[in-house]
Amino acid sequence: QVQLVESGGGLVHPGGSLRLSCVASGFIFSLYPMTWYRQVPGKGRELVASIGSAGSNTNYADSVKGRFTISRDNAKKTVYLQMNSLKPEDTAVYYCYTVFMGTWGQGTQVTVSS
After folding, report:
1. Fewer CB atoms < 10 Å away: N or C end of the chain?
2. Predicted confidence band of residue 76 (pLDDT cuts 50, 70, 90)
3. In angstroms, rounded to a whole number, what is the distance separating the alpha carbons of residues 17 and 54?
4. Residue 9 — pLDDT band, cuts 50, 70, 90?
5. What pairs with residue 109 in β-bridges?
6. Is residue 12 within 8 Å of 112, Cβ to Cβ?
7. Is the pLDDT confidence value at 105 over 90?
8. 25, β-bridge pairs
9. Which residues, other chains included, contact 75 with Cβ-Cβ below 8 Å and sequence gap of 6+?
C-alpha cells in the first residue's frame, strides 16, 4: 500500500519556524522526486518546493525562496520542509506528493497568526 504521512504542522506566530515531515511507504522512495504543495480554502493546490530523487536538485515557489528549505533522507524514506520566517500568508494545508501512482498525503495544517 502506497502511503504518505505528513506531520509537524501547527500554530506559529509570524516570524516563527516549523519543520514538516512526510514519511513514505509502499514504494521505492529513493527513486522518485518529491514535492510539497499547499492549499487554502477556495483555491487550487500551489507547488511550494520539490526535490530530486538524490536530493541534489531543488525548486521553490518564488513566494518561499530564501525562507523554506526542502530536504530528504532516503534511508528514512522521509522528505522535510523547513519553514522559517513564516508569514500569515503561509497559512494553508500542506501536502506531500509523489508521482508514483500520483499519491498524496492527507495534509497537515499550518497556521501563522499572532
Report:
1. N
2. very high
3. 25
4. very high
5. 93
6. yes
7. yes
8. 3
9. none
Contact criterion met (CB below 8 Å) for 79 and 34: yes
| Helices vs. strands in the chain: H and E counts, helices first | 0, 11
Q: Which of 9-13, 22-26, 55-59 has the lowest mean pLDDT?
A: 55-59
Instruction: Give the residue among 113, 78, 114 at the shortest CA–CA distance from 98.
Output: 78
Residues 48-86 as b/e (b if ≥16 CB within 10 A, e otherwise) read bbbbeeebeeeebeeebeeebbbebeeeebbbbbebeeb
d(CA 28, CA 56): 18
